[in-house]
Specification:
globular; 542 residues; single chain; 2 domains; Aldehyde Dehydrogenase, Chain A, domain 2; seven-stranded mixed beta sheet; 26 strands; six-stranded mixed beta sheet; alpha/beta
Length: 542
């Protein structure tokens, strides 16, 4: 496809450095019931948000490969495979000892690391992530897996101890929930999908993974590793239009756990399709409109640096991004001007360029959506800073915008923009902001910037029942992964972190008997001494 417009920011083929070079186009596959499926489905071309500058002064699409467009029949086959592997909880994987499952996941992790460079480059080319961020996503995923394995060992060791109370002896373990549907987001197609997939597998669930709409091809190199490291049907990976193919799986009632990171609207639709919603466990990471509140005594340089980092890391395409800046009127004019100057100076370009901050957007509809939100606000009195540069760009690459004098009624203040636009609202009294946050449908995080403990302390108390994390003089973020990650209202359901996720994908189950009745005590002791049960055992992972 030929694209008109300026050309200087996009590269010619000869200008791409060796460490960012393209691969041969990839033909994506499905993994169903332990079998790699390479045909029998339509495919959709995957083009990069990075365009190439031709010798004829046009911008050309880059074909990265083809991704499967699975049908509902493929999904139901994958669901049947996961259901068979679950086998009402008696399958090989759910009934195996924790040690056996951890060994399989450790082997997969070891083999996964051989694909680091492939995945890093595809993160750059598929979704426009900088090389540094792409490397960080891969490496953080490996750390997350290893930390989860260690946490699982500790959980299993604690569960191997007998408990005595009121004449009873019991052993309590956490057991899997069943067939789990994992659906991750495009902005972290590897890491955030794995933050649900790995704990689900560790605890013995079988899984059906629907890969994100962008960031698809990087999964293909992992399919043979899933195939060789796990029993057939434990990990099934499909791709296609979720709107068209996931409904049948949900309506079947065979999904026991929905692990979804995306919009609350889609999550509500998926949950409503399940015929037995009381049996469906949901672990959800959803919409967010995380605000920053900049008080009169906020450290200016620090608050601006943190707000830029929070608002524009990976082009603002993060659920934990700062999506609304609330600045006290006494400092708003000076503070906003400095913010706009620093944003205007940010380097825009290709993901592999040193120091680049703003890169092409994978969603080709996003630039138009952002422009419409900004235009509507400006038409109602908002001010677009650096207007000669802001939101102008080349095809998928746009410059970040700072919009001040935004009103609470504007869509920029109410809707999650998920892109490089920074709305700024001025306030006279912080109670105005608190009132809006109380009424908001979102409740993930907030950042507070200030020095006076007499102001910050009451503000923390006022917001602690509105959001799940309050950051003081720091931007919003997910990590470290040992901390809980969740939200209130429409922003989340369930809690994810290294240890919380293990609990989210499992249920406490116990075996008990009377410690005084000889028949029960002897039977209990016999099972332990002869090690005839994978559940009732004091076997300890070393």
């Amino acid at each position: 496809m030929n694209k008109s417009g300026g050309l200087n920011l996009f590269p010619k083929l000869t200008e791409i450095p060796e460490n960012a070079g393209l691969f041969e186009p990839i033909r994506g596959r499905l993994l169903v019931g332990g079998e790699l499926i390479q045909r029998g489905f339509e495919t959709r071309p995957v083009t990069s948000p990075i365009l190439l500058r031709s010798e004829k002064d046009t911008l050309e699409d880059v074909l990265l490969g083809e991704t499967p467009q699975a049908t509902s029949d493929h999904v139901m086959q994958a669901l049947a495979a996961a259901t068979q592997a679950w086998k009402s909880g008696t399958g090989e994987w759910p009934s195996a000892r924790m040690e056996r499952r951890l060994e399989a996941i450790a082997l997969f992790t070891q083999r996964m690391q051989a694909h680091r460079e492939t995945i890093v480059r595809l993160l750059m080319w598929e979704i426009g992530k900088t090389r540094g961020d792409a490397e960080s996503e891969f490496d953080r995923t490996i750390v997350y897996i290893n930390d989860t394995l260690e946490a699982a060992k500790g959980l299993d060791r604690d569960s191997s101890r007998l408990q005595f109370a009121q004449g009873y002896v019991a052993l309590v373990r956490r057991m899997p929930l069943g067939v789990t549907l994992c659906m991750g987001p495009f902005n972290y197609p590897l890491n955030e999908t794995f933050t649900t997939l790995i704990p689900a597998l560790v605890m013995g669930n079988t899984t059906l993974v629907k890969v994100p709409r962008y960031g698809q091809l990087l999964w293909d190199c992992l399919l043979p590793e899933f195939q060789s490291c796990f029993p057939a049907g434990v990990v099934n990976v499909i791709n296609g239009s979720g709107r068209e193919i996931i409904g049948a799986a949900m309506r079947s009632g065979d999904i026991d756990v929905l692990a979804f990171i995306g919009s609350s609207q889609v999550a509500n639709t998926l949950k409503s399709q399940h015929p037995r919603p009381n049996r469906l466990r949901s672990i959800l990471g959803l919409d967010a409109k995380n605000p920053a509140i900049i008080l009169p005594d906020a450290p200016v340089d620090l608050s601006i640096d943190e707000c830029i980092k929070g608002a524009l890391s990976f082009n603002g395409q993060r659920c934990t991004a700062l999506k609304l800046l609330c600045v006290h009127d006494s400092i708003a004019e000076h503070w906003t001007q400095k913010l706009a100057e620093r944003v205007a100076a940010m380097k825009i370009g290709m993901p592999w360029e040193p120091g680049v901050k703003i890169t092409p957007l994978p969603d080709t509809a996003k630039p138009g959506e952002l422009r419409k939100m900004v235009e509507d606000a400006v038409a109602d009195g908002a001010i677009l800073h650096n207007s000669e540069l802001a939101l102008r760009g080349q095809a998928t690459l746009i410059r970040p915008a700072v919009v001040s004098q935004v009103k609470w009624s504007h869509s920029l203040a109410q809707v999650e923009q998920f892109g490089p636009v920074i709305p700024v609202i001025r306030f006279n009294h912080v109670d105005e902001v608190v009132e809006q946050l109380v009424a908001s449908q979102y409740g993930m995080q907030v950042s507070l910037f200030g020095r006076d403990a007499r102001q910050l302390g009451p503000l923390v108390d006022a917001l602690s029942n509105q959001v799940a994390r309050i950051n003081i003089n720091a931007s919003c973020q997910r990590g470290p992964d040992v901390f809980p990650f969740t939200g209130r209202k429409n922003s989340a359901e369930g809690t994810l972190s290294v240890s919380d996720a293990l609990r989210a994908f499992s249920l406490r189950t116990m075996v008990a008997t009377s410690s005084t009745a000889i028949e029960g005590r002897d039977a209990f002791r016999g099972i332990l001494e002869h090690d005839t049960s994978n559940f009732l055992t004091n076997h300890v992972i070393l």
